[in-house]
Amino acid sequence: MKLASFLAADRVVLNFTAASTRDTLEQLVAPLVKADIVADAKQFMADLLRREAEITTVMDNGVALPHARSNAVRRLGLTVGIAAEPGIQYSPESPTRSRLFFCIAVPGYAPTAHIPLLQALAKFSREPSRVDKLLHSKSASVAARYLINFKS
Length: 152
Prior knowledge:
This protein is of the alpha/beta class. 37% of the residues lie in helices and 17% in strands.
């Protein structure tokens, strides 16, 4: 899966801070709204929060993959978020603080369209050196370029 069709520098949020899951998701959804991938931020937020309430998307290494299928989504989209250190207590159920977020917007009309994207991001996330390099990106364009060049 090529990430280039889903990612641009304007969909990378660097060094953000958040006090809650909701705050985190609001910052990750904003670029999707701006890119016209999400038509209704309020509805998509509700869908994301409902999905997170079912089961957390935080992996053991602190990478989180929030995603939801929603009728508020026009087309499959991705935002990457890199939180400032020491990370965010994203999931109240997980003791792990998260610094890297991949937020996936899934259109309601294509409920499984995100599976290859989710698999590619999970594969990327399993290698600590890749995650570390991404976390230390100096700019959004550097982070986007690094992910775009990843071969899954």
